[in-house]
Specification:
Elements lengths: L1 H36 L17 E3 L9 E4 L2 H6 L18 E4 L6 E4 L3 E8 L5 E14 L3 E7 L5 E7 L4 E3 L2 E6 L5 E3 L6 H9 L8 H4 L15 E3 L10 E7 L8 E7 L5 E5 L1 E2 L2 E2 L11 E13 L13 E2 L20 E5 L1
Antiparallel strand pairs: 1-4, 2-3, 4-6, 5-6, 6-13, 7-8, 9-12, 10-11, 10-14, 14-18, 15-18, 16-17, 18-19, 18-20
Length: about 350
């Protein structure tokens, strides 16, 4: 009896070994063909997701953002009639001055909002079991920028041109709950990152990944590590980088929320505060007194048809949906969208 069992085990082991060898040969052949025939792949790119898994927000090039008009309040505070002439009263070069700039914008792709239970170190040396919310995203430099120019005939134009320059990405990301009116800044949670990496891209952790893949294995970056120059992506290549934003202690009663991302573009607005028709800034005040600077910000809307007793990522939906009860937020028509660019 024991001899037959031993023979059966040996036969099964041989079959398993043959299957493993065949699989390894197939993988090696795939990797070799990818190296020879495929176009050069971007270093650091994660494996491609199935269609519909990633959502891409194309770079937003707004011609109105290439210029703005402002009074130079610091100069006018010292000399209200700066540069005026008898024949040009009220037409000071420090009034209604045009500020122009070229505008760049990064392309953003992201995967569905997800959750994961992680043991997070506490201040007293223990570990707390916490539900971490996280968003995987990629930023890509398209190599384009919107340039403003004035022709010899005085015509003002805004054209999309090739810049081929790296873009410094300095992200600021936070989550706002519609239900609770709370804001949650993205937090770097070191113990969560390896767990998220293993879950989201386990394929690149094969022992022979360097031989099988036409590119170097990648890793996720937290929002601090994402502060770097993003090189332009040539045609046929994707030199974008993947990062992850993480949150903890989100109120479980949050059913509607938005994620705000700054740093995707250099577009901005500013305004100088006034009181009784006069600028707040007075001569001798620190520069910028009364000035409010607004950055162009991407807002992504999410909702989940659930309750606080069962938090699960499968219930999170991206976008805006009209349904009973949502009218309590009194959203303006322009806010009833999946995503929106605004100034914050």
């Amino acid at each position: 009896m024991s001899t037959s069992i031993d023979r059966w085990i040996a036969r099964v082991s041989s079959c398993v070994l043959v299957v493993l060898l065949a699989s390894n040969a197939a993988w090696s052949q795939t990797g070799a063909s990818a190296k020879k025939g495929a176009p050069a792949a971007a270093t650091g790119r994660f494996r491609a997701a199935a269609p519909g898994v990633e959502t891409t927000i194309e770079a937003d090039y707004d011609a109105a953002a290439t210029f703005s008009r402002h009074d130079l309040v610091e100069i006018l505070a010292a000399d209200p009639e700066f540069g005026e002439r008898p024949f040009s009263k009220g037409r000071s070069p420090a009034k209604d001055t045009v500020f122009s700039r070229n505008i760049w914008c990064l392309e953003l792709s992201f995967k569905p909002m997800r959750m994961m239970w992680v043991d997070v170190p506490a201040t007293d040396g223990r570990f707390d079991r916490k539900l971490i919310w996280y968003l995987l995203f990629r930023v890509k430099n398209t190599g384009k920028e919107l340039a403003r120019s004035v022709t010899s005939e005085g015509e003002v134009k805004s054209d999309l041109v090739d810049s081929k320059q790296p873009i410094m990405f300095v992200p600021r990301i936070w989550l706002e709950s519609w239900d609770k009116g709370k804001a949650y800044p993205d937090r770097v949670i070191p113990v969560a990152l390896p767990e998220i990496e293993r879950r989201e891209d386990a394929g690149h952790r094969l022992l022979n990944a360097k031989e099988l893949l036409p590119e170097a294995p990648s890793r996720l970056l937290n929002t601090v590590e994402m502060e770097r120059e993003i090189p332009p992506s040539p045609a046929g290549q994707d030199l974008g980088i993947w990062g992850v934003a993480t949150w903890e202690d989100i109120d479980p009663a949050t059913d509607h929320f938005s994620v705000y991302i700054q740093g995707l573009t250099n577009a901005y607005q500013w305004e100088d505060a006034k009181e009784n028709g006069q600028y707040v800034y007075k001569q001798g005040d620190p520069l910028g007194t009364g000035r409010k600077l607004l950055q162009k910000t991407l807002r992504l809307n999410f909702w989940r048809p659930s309750d606080k007793f069962y938090e699960h990522e499968s219930e999170i939906r991206y976008g805006y949906r009209e349904h009973p009860g949502i009218e309590r937020f009194d959203l303006k028509p322009e806010e009833q969208v999946d995503y929106r660019w605004l100034y914050r």
